[in-house]
Amino acid sequence: MSILNLEDSYNKRFGAVFTPLNWAKKIVDKHYFEKWLNGATILDPTAGNGVFIEAFISLAQEKGIVISNALLNQLFGVELNQLYVDEFYKRMVTKYNVYFPKNNFVQGDILFQKNEIKADYLVGNPPWVNFTDLEEKYKEKIKHLFIEYGLVANQKDLLLGNARTDIAALILLKVLHSNLHENGTAIFFLPLSIFQNDGANQEFRNYSVKGVEFCVEDIMDFNGTKVFDDIFGRYGIAHFQRNKKQKFPIKYHILKNSKWATHSAKPLFNPKDPLTVFNDSDTEERLNGFQKIVLPKHLQPRQGVNTCGANDIFFFNNYKIIDEHRIELTNKFGKSLTTEVRFVFPLTVTNTLTSPMPQPEKLILIPHDINGKPISLETLNEHKSLLEYLLLYRHLLENRKGVLINTWIKKGYWWSLLGVGEYSFAPYKIMWKAFGESTFNPKILLPDQKFGSWQGNQSLNAYIGSSSLHEAEEIYSKLKNPLIQDYLSSLRMQGTCNWAQPGRMKKLMEFI
């Protein structure tokens, strides 16, 4: 394998995203360069190719400053990949004629350092990858650290919803605790999901690690401006202070038309909530006065049905109604299934929520009872065509990945789906697009005359199911409050997978 292929493989497995030198120099020049000249020590704990250390050296030469051994000995870096360490030392000589101290830029994992480096200031760009996307061996090696540093309560949490926790959050907590001197500051490029996603990163927003408090002083949101190649998520720069209690609001700078506009940000409802960014004082005043929507507990927002990677088995574009009770379905592979209509439901597609009178374009097979549980083996045996169809794909269905689906598979219900409960069969659905949108437009879906209640398509749709049209209309009217659009927009998740997911919408509601 070539060096380039090795680098590409490493970057994907460990979330390496390298900072362009010009941006590293901007940060260093603004925040740390004069401090370095006055004797401060600087550490990049996940140094990659050493670009932040290079920024100090490059700026010094541009400014005509003699780079003494004393100045070099104030710079430190730790990098997991020996390839980048070796390349850094060569580059310092060939590009700058600088012989960097051999013990100051070292190969190692900052999460497992025997001899901790402590510095006055930290700067860098931690890995951008979720726990769930790491290679399996490294997951096993570090998963106890997510508990140790308070990001999850136990390993089960890590396997479930918090599997999307960023490793950057873990590294931040570790270095703020162990690698930064008292009252020191740290500046990092980061995925903004740490501050603005629900669930996975909320424990980071305790702003405390092993008894040490820290705070976010301000955040710079690049707002889609391209800084890194091949990175499409939202990112920015965050400025941290050690040994200082978090207070809100914080300054939140957004890059617009090549200029930084300063806003204020704070969690709107609970201290660990995602940051709400206020465009102006009027929006802040309106949102501060928002009254939560009060609903009965059974009317919680839900995600659509999740096949766990088996859409082609459970979704059908072609069908023929045989009689009042039976239907013939044909999947994308040309395999047919004749089954009872009671197992088949209309599935939302792109046009469903925008059409005034939506018609089923796609159907979904749900082999579950109306209580939400998968049908029993005895029931499946009574429907031989359904059994024969599912047996064609038994191996695929039994090998679906995920903790929750495997709970059902291990119990013998290998035909089960997720996101199915009594709520799935509520005849009236107040449904909205939860993924990739920028406007919140809920719609009441009436039951289809042939196939009954509409079903949302996995995380693309979210809904509240109701047993009566009157109740559905009341909920709909509450969801049309323009403050809901203001709130969702203030979280700056437009166009992402987290636009209006159930967990986010629940923050606007109080259940009794």
Question: N-to-C terminal Cα separation, in Å?
Answer: 60 Å
The helix/strand class is: alpha/beta
Helix content: 25-40%
Question: Could you give a short account of the major beta sheet?
Answer: 11 strands, mixed
Number of E-type strands = 23
CATH superfamily of the largest domain: Vaccinia Virus protein VP39
Q: Given the C-alpha coordinates, what overall shape results?
A: elongated
Count of separate structural domains: 2
CATH architecture of the largest domain: 3-Layer(aba) Sandwich
CATH class of the largest domain: Alpha Beta
Mean pLDDT score: 92
- Strand content bin: 15-25%
Oligomeric composition of the shown chains: single chain
Radius of gyration: 27 Å
Outline of the structure:
The protein has 19 helices and 23 strands.
Annotate the secondary structure layout.
Layout lengths: L2 H12 L6 H11 L1 H5 L4 E3 L6 H12 L6 H4 L2 E5 L2 H15 L8 E3 L11 E6 L11 H13 L6 H5 L7 H12 L1 E12 L1 H4 L11 E2 L2 E10 L13 E8 L7 E7 L2 E9 L7 E4 L2 H8 L4 E3 L6 E2 L7 H4 E2 L1 E4 L4 E5 L5 E5 L3 E4 L14 E4 L11 H6 L1 H9 L1 H5 L4 H8 L17 E6 L9 E3 L15 E6 L2 H11 L2 H9 L11 H5 L2 E3 L1
Parallel strand pairs: 1-2, 1-4, 2-3, 4-5, 7-9, 12-23
Antiparallel strand pairs: 5-8, 6-7, 7-8, 9-10, 10-11, 13-22, 14-19, 15-16, 16-17, 18-19, 20-21, 20-22
Helix pairs in contact: 2-4
